[in-house]
Design brief:
The complex is a heterodimer of chains A (259) and B (349). With 259 residues, chain A is mainly α. Chain A is built from 9 helices and 5 strands. In chain A, α7 runs antiparallel to α8 and α7 crosses α9. Chain B has a single domain, classed as Alpha-Beta Barrel (TIM Barrel). Classes of the chains: A mainly alpha (259), B alpha/beta (349). Chain B: InterPro entries: Amidohydro-rel, Metal_Hydrolase.
């Protein structure tokens, strides 16, 4: 008996294990973990063996796009299922216009097409890839804008000559490299930082325009992230305590909220 | 007319609504979810003094609308942009008859735009003809994420939508306001993507496509297509209130729009009753892009005048006093406004 109890105790899954697994689940539009965004409403480890897991997720509005909602909820379920020793896993989305549909589809393991029926054609792979490209573009622009601002003598056209090894070590460069890796873009230290949306370096005459285009992507992604975070705290009072500060290339308080 | 420091601004609010979201009009839980979502937008982005109670937010009625929109004589003209939402609300969300009657009673102050939905098929084409005969429409509001039976979204490039656009062109309904939402068929793709606007703007050059909330949450996609299509315009609904709660973000939005499409193709909108126009106009006239955002030029008084009213007045043939009119600006740096040349110029980027 003692041995059996011992083994059961060793297998016990902790809430911290589950949250660590959920850290890998990214909101594709905002390029940020659902844990940092405050989208994890609750984590419960339960069951007779202490290894069943129930997770509730929440979003900033009832009308957040259902395809992105599905990606996050199904990614969360997959991530929690991969935790060693985990038993039964239930992940549910609360208060969304498609909560019933999505939660039933997940519970039945119906997959994207089985859940959304005639509204689903093939898969969400292309959608995911589109937003991985945007995440890379935004990370690239942050690194380049920081580099430009570090020395007022630098011009937008100067970024054409900039190589990965010219970037200072730190969060922004790490972020760029990880997003390059996700897209299998070159990671060699001498490869150029500035890439057009198709992954190739732009022609000399197109350098500034490519940077400006990347800037519009970064402003869009960061602006959406701050708006979504704000809406979540309006919808769920107190949820700001679950949100992790999102750093910005602009300033310490880039998008200040005036009250 | 709004006057500040000796300067007069002709003001057009290019996006208002007269909605009814009261519980007796809600068909199902989605009717409540939808207005709750609007109310959270309202609470999240409004100055504290401008926040309404939930009950007064559900329905305003014509009398209150006239007071709210035209208070202090700031707004000269406002344009209804109704959403049908028939799957969520028994009598629909936008109140067609009430809004149209109000516009008829105040033709100098109000324009009623109607809506159509390609999923209404042939009957809907007849209905659009009839509506135009009765209402003499200058524009329509299209909500591509509206639900309709089994369908929860459509694209401007759908074959039936093309027939409706062709009918608009034939009838002279020139202003097509496009509002993107979260659902589309298939769900495989990004519902907020404005690529379909790009296509129809090329095919229907007599029509002007006003993309509401300037493409947000896809500002970048909007800027890119609008640069290439001279008949695509940015509506500032939902973007405007960031001027208070997130002024640096608002500065970036304005900076991007001015860089990519220039000052002649941006329209002020309050999105009443989500917000009210008075405080937005006052803040916009006082607004300036922060000096440390060196990538953007400062906003000029001319730009503010155009955005606040002159651009919309041009699209809707609204009479503007001669002394307040302004000439068009030069082309933006991103390329000529001629579509073919712009496409060539940008192809490499």
């Amino acid at each position: 008996m003692t041995a059996v109890l011992q083994r059961s105790t060793e297998q016990r899954v902790t809430e911290a294990d589950v949250r660590t697994a959920l850290d890998t689940v990214i909101d594709p539009e905002l390029d940020e973990p659902v844990t940092d965004l405050g989208f994890v409403r609750s984590v419960a480890v339960e069951g007779p063996d202490g290894c069943d897991v129930r997770v509730h997720l929440r979003l900033p509005t009832s009308f957040c796009a259902p395809n992105f909602a599905w990606l996050m909820v199904s990614d969360a379920r997959d991530a929690v299922r991969a935790v060693p020793g985990v038993g039964r896993v239930v992940v549910e989305l609360d208060d969304h216009h498609d909560s019933d549909l999505i939660n039933a589809g997940l519970a039945a393991d119906a997959g994207y097409r089985g859940t959304f029926g005639h509204e689903a054609e093939e898969s969400l792979d292309e959608l995911r890839a589109t937003f991985q490209r945007k995440a890379h573009t935004a990370a690239m622009e942050r690194a380049l804008t920081s580099w430009l601002r570090a020395d007022p003598a630098r011009t937008e056209d100067d970024v054409a000559a900039l190589r990965l090894c010219d970037l200072p070590a730190g969060r922004e460069t790490d972020s760029l490299l990880s997003r390059r890796a996700a897209l299998r873009l070159p990671l060699t230290p001498t490869s150029p930082v500035l890439l057009a949306p198709d992954g190739t370096p732009p022609e000399p005459g197109q350098v500034a325009l490519t940077l400006r285009r990347a800037r519009s992507v970064r402003i869009s992604v960061d602006g959406n992230a701050h708006f979504c975070r704000g809406l979540l705290t309006t919808r769920y009072p107190g949820s700001d305590a679950d949100q992790v500060f999102r750093p910005s290339v602009d300033s310490a308080l880039p998008l200040e909220v005036l009250r | 007319m709004y006057s500040k420091d000796g300067t007069d601004y002709f003001v057009v609010d290019a996006h208002i609504a007269l909605w009814d979201a009261r519980p007796e009009n809600q068909r199902n839980i989605h009717g409540k979810q939808f207005i709750d979502c609007f109310y959270d937008y309202h609470r999240n982005l409004s100055p504290e003094a401008e926040v309404w109670s939930y009950d007064e937010y559900l329905y305003q009625g014509g009398e209150r609308l006239m007071r709210d929109v035209f208070v202090d004589g700031i707004v000269d003209h406002a344009i209804f942009q109704p959403a049908r939402l028939a799957e969520f609300y028994a009598k629909g969300f936008g109140q067609t008859e009430e809004a149209f009657a109000l516009a008829q009673a105040h033709p100098d102050k109000l324009t009623y735009n109607h809506y159509w939905d390609p999923r209404d098929g042939e009957n809907g084409l007849d209905a659009l003809r009839a509506a135009h005969e009765r209402m003499d429409l200058k524009g329509v509001k299209l909500y591509t994420a509206d639900w309709h039976g089994e369908s929860r979204g459509w694209k401007l490039t759908d074959p039936m939508a093309q027939r409706y656009l062709a009918l608009c062109q034939e009838l002279g309904i020139r202003n097509i306001h496009v509002h993107k939402g979260p659902t589309i068929r298939p769900l495989d793709r990004d519902a907020f993507d404005v690529a379909d606007v790009d296509h129809v703007a090329t095919d229907f050059t007599d029509l002007t496509f006003v993309v509401e909330h300037c493409g947000l949450p896809r500002l970048e996609d909007f800027c890119w297509i609008a640069t290439q299509e001279p008949n695509v315009v940015a509506g500032l609904a939902v973007a405007m209130p960031f001027i208070h709660s997130r002024p640096r973000y608002f500065a970036q939005i304005m900076g991007e729009l001015l860089y990519w499409i220039g000052e002649d193709r941006i329209l002020f909108s309050s999105d009443y009753a989500i917000w009210t126009p008075k405080w937005l106009v006052e803040k916009f006239v006082d607004f300036q892009i922060p000096e440390d955002l060196t990538e953007y030029a400062p906003l000029t008084t001319e730009t503010k005048k155009k955005v606040l009213g002159l651009n919309a007045a041009k699209l809707y043939d609204l009479p503007v006093p001669a002394e307040l009119q302004l000439p068009d600006a030069d082309e933006t740096a991103t390329g000529p406004r001629d579509t073919d040349a712009a496409d060539k110029n940008l192809a490499m980027a």
